[in-house]
Amino acid sequence: MKRLLALIPVLMLAALSFAQAPRPNPAEFSHVLSIDGVGKVTITYRSLHWNEQAYATAKLNEQIRERLNSGIWHRIGTFNTDADLVIGNVQVPKGSYGLGISFDGKDNFSLVLGNGGKDMTIPFTTQQDSPLVSYLAFDIRPSESGGYLIEGRSGKFRCWAEVKLPEAKVQ
User: Fold this and answer.
1) SS3 for 127?
2) Is the pTM value of this prediction over 0.90?
3) Measured between alpha carbons, how far is residue 53 from residues 31, 65, 69, 133 in Å?
4) Do residues 117 and 134 touch, judged by C-beta distance below 8 A?
5) Do the Cβ atoms of 26 and 41 come closer than 8 Å?
6) Rounded to the nearest 5°, which phi and psi values hold at 162?
7) Calpha distance 171→161 (Å, rounded)
8) Per-residue pLDDT tens for 17-62?
9) 111-114: long-range contacts (C-beta < 8 A, 24 or more apart)?
10) Does 117 have pLDDT greater than 90?
């Protein structure tokens, strides 16, 4: 009887965990910037769920952070560009790349573009005062400077970098 009574709290916790709504699998999203005379820039990615506890643990533990950066977050999608461009201060030749993200122990986020076993790490400007965003979201849009901006949001972080495209060819 004592064993049965001891088992009741465990069964109740198990029942509660199954009663919670399951998280959907990460959806795949795609954003396209298309400019006449230049071509297209296409970002396709899986919208990962933000997990504050896992992030806080990884932020403080370099080994866990490295596993997260080189594993789950390293290839979350693709980045394709029809033209050479500059993101932040990094030259990105036209082509197809694996898309990933990474971060360090000081909340600095970067975009990671990989091609042929070589990664380009593009530092983002990061703010941590945004409203909570439960799933990773990227956007590419015109910026105030007259160029373009690539922005990522997840948790309370907003990260961005300027995108410079070549001049449009007059047809």
Assistant:
1) strand
2) no
3) 29, 13, 16, 15
4) no
5) no
6) -70, 145
7) 30
8) 333 344 556 678 999 999 888 899 999 999 999 999 999 999 999 9
9) 111/87, 111/150, 111/152, 111/161, 112/74, 113/79, 114/74, 114/75
10) no
